[in-house]
Design brief:
The chain has 189 residues and is mainly α. It is built from ten helices and no strands.
Length: 189
Amino acid sequence: MTKSAAPRRSDATKAAILAAARERFAADGYERATIRAIARDASIDPSMVMRYYGNKEGLFVAASSIDLRLPELGALPSKHVGAALVAHFLDRWEGDDVLTAMLRVGVTNEAGAERMREVFAQQIGPVTLGVCPDPAEASHRAALVASQILGMALTRYVLRFAPAAEMSREEVIAWLAPTVQRYLTAEKP
């Protein structure tokens, strides 16, 4: 009989560092967040942060690792893809503070912007490629989808513009889905 392995202490330390880093980056942004403050929040010595992540940029990359958990859209009728994608992103933004933190950092810091570009290119690009009429246009279409999704997220969750923040989920989907749908599946203008 084999004993099940207990979680290693280093795993718990890394998890504490990442949780503290996510909160600190969200609260302070990339520029103002410090290794010392993150270590203090995680109740560890700053040298441990450096040991596991090397520097602030390495820590940010690890803390901002995001799986958008995009739905499988291939089974949907193509005319419903825009609504499904908008609904999915609303659920993700409303249930994951890391995404909001990434957006805040992305608009104020080049490392954050690069991280957002990577996440969206790696995850939205393939979805777009799977539904658009011309694969050669997939990257352009993905950029247009991202402009709508990120624009709504910025106005609704970061800047909290009253009209955008006060709209119901259904209203946002009703307004945004046709535009996203057009970007994904309409013929090139």
